[in-house]
Amino acid sequence: MTTDSMNNTNLIDIGANLTHSSFEEDLEKVLQRAQEEGVGTIVVTGTDEPCSEAALELAKRYPDVLYATAGVHPHEAKTFTPATCSALKAIAEHAAVVAIGETGLDFNRNYSPAESQQFAFERQLELAAELGLPVFVHERDAHKRMFEMLKDYRDQLVDVVIVAQLHAMIGANHSHNLPAFDKVPAYRRLGELELTASRSLTLLTEARARVNEVQELLSIG
Description:
It is a single chain. By secondary structure, the chain is of the alpha/beta class. Helix 6 (143-152) links the parallel strand 5 (135-140) and strand 6 (160-162). It has helices spanning 3-6, 27-36, 49-61, 82-92, 114-131, 143-152, 164-168, 172-175, 200-209, 211-218; strands at 11-16, 39-44, 66-70, 97-106, 135-140, 160-162, 187-188. It has a seven-stranded parallel β-sheet with strand order 1-2-3-4-5-6-7, with helices on both faces. The protein has a single domain (3-218), classed as Alpha-Beta Barrel (TIM Barrel). It is built from ten helices and seven strands.
């Protein structure tokens, strides 16, 4: 597989966990299948400091095909320290890193205490504002608090991609009613697609229509 052949396709996967051990043996085949299905660019998600480092290494290995994010997922927020923030900044300063995240709030599973999640989320919002990078946000059962925090940074952030609805549609019935929703200029409504087999064709059509917006958002291409 060559970089040129991958770039002949035009879909972008903005959140792939390719650093997981399950991809160690067949990553080349996975990327080849992605290319065959029309996915020519993939953003590898960082979910903690080691994972963010690994995501960057993959992006270096497949330049112009793979990109990376640098961040700490809310599940891992209990591990976040000031040193973590410094490490993420060093990773994110590389040109192949196109967003801060996956960060955010998950009050559904609560693998990390809510206080730890909010601390880590805010530090990463600050980092994104400092570096001028978009924020890749995870949200479950925390839509109100998430938008309160985003509203505080709305004038400082470049852009925000929220993947709550892409994960599980949790919060979708409530977000429209939040006053802050339409007042966060950084918010990009790229998701909110119900991932069901019956909507697969619609999903593909809508995804293709949004490629240019994602490319511009993440400065890819």
